[in-house]
Amino acid sequence: xxPFEIITSALEAIKINKLRSTLTALGVIIGVAxxxxxxxxxxxxxxxISAEFEKLGTNSLFIIPGKLEGSFGGGPxxxxxxLTFRIVDRLExxxxxxxxxxxxxxxxxxxxxxxxxSKVTTMAGAKETYFEEAQVKTNxxxxxxxxxxxxxxxxxxxxPTLAKDLYxxxxxxxxxxxxxxxxxxxxxxxxxxxxxxxVDADNYLYVPLNSARKLTGADQVNSVVVRTASTEVxxxxxxxxxxxxxxxxxxxxxxxxxxxxxxSTILQILGVLTAALGGIAAISLIVGGVGISNIMLVSVxxxxxxxxxxxxxxxxxxxxxxxxxxxxxxxxxxxxxxxVLVGYLGSLAISNFIQTAVPFxxxxxxxxFSSAVGIVFGVAPAIRAARLQPIEALRSx
Length: 397
Description:
Elements: H1 3-16, H2 18-56, E1 60-65, H3 85-93, E2 99-114, E3 117-126, H4 129-133, E4 138-141, H5 146-150, E5 155-158, H6 160-167, E6 176-179, E7 182-190, E8 195-196, E9 199-200, E10 204-208, H7 209-216, E11 223-228, H8 234-245, E12 254-258, H9 259-302, H10 304-312, H11 317-350, H12 360-387, H13 390-395
Parallel strand pairs: 3-10, 5-7
Antiparallel strand pairs: 1-11, 1-12, 2-3, 2-6, 2-11, 4-7, 5-10, 6-7, 8-9
């Protein structure tokens, strides 16, 4: 049999039992669609994070509490947070010419209220320099100033989601907002940034760093961004920072990372999580493959007389094996193609809420994986069909 005849014969056999074939391919469709969706979400998140780090420039160092560990180059910080404002103030006072700015950052969950409306949000305390370094801009109003940070003024810049949910279409500028029971004046609304990995980046509010310290009584910082004079002086700046930190902290109490190192660590963590979730999603592909194998075995039993007739008129075992294997592969690849389409459409729908991206290699992976499932799980039924003896097959009925 030539390839065209094999494919035509396989398609005819599949068409005879359309419902059964559709249900058989359903496991493959679900598995491939799940893999495409997971990869699209992960790729979108990686693109967003990479873009955000690019905004900070390559001449930045990041100090985080604890020691990053892990076999793949990253992991959650180990040990208690000992990075205090006293230590950060020392970095500011003793910075050398290689260091341009030291910007500590704190984050804490708070309840924001306006009249009868309330919402749990994240309050970020930062210096005024943060907005320029991170290229954060306002859509309305303005950002807080160095003077407002120095005097710990109760002013805030809020995200568009928070503005919409609390003020219900009214203009929040120059109106009060209660943050953990204290009134702050809204001076600006940030530009929309979208949803990042399931977290609404527009449901944030920013207050001057000293205002946040006064409100929360916090003594520890979540992170510190150190901006250097240029990329070339990063090693010099890092060495100077280490000398200052080592006076009060051990090497297990902090980690200093360049932009490339921090980005690489985050992307590696995301890669491991994506692989783990993708492996879970691939289980449905295996289940789909088992379904294909079962249906093909049933098909062999039902078509025993057909197989006997084919062999009686000269069909070789290789021809029978190829025909049944082709049916399994067509079912699997068709399911994979539909799964890719479903996953892509699902990614487009999700992109209205979070950033997604479907790379070409994800499509190739989905189709390749589905093809492999069809071959692997179609071999046993095909071999069984090929081994049937013509006389025994004709006697079966």
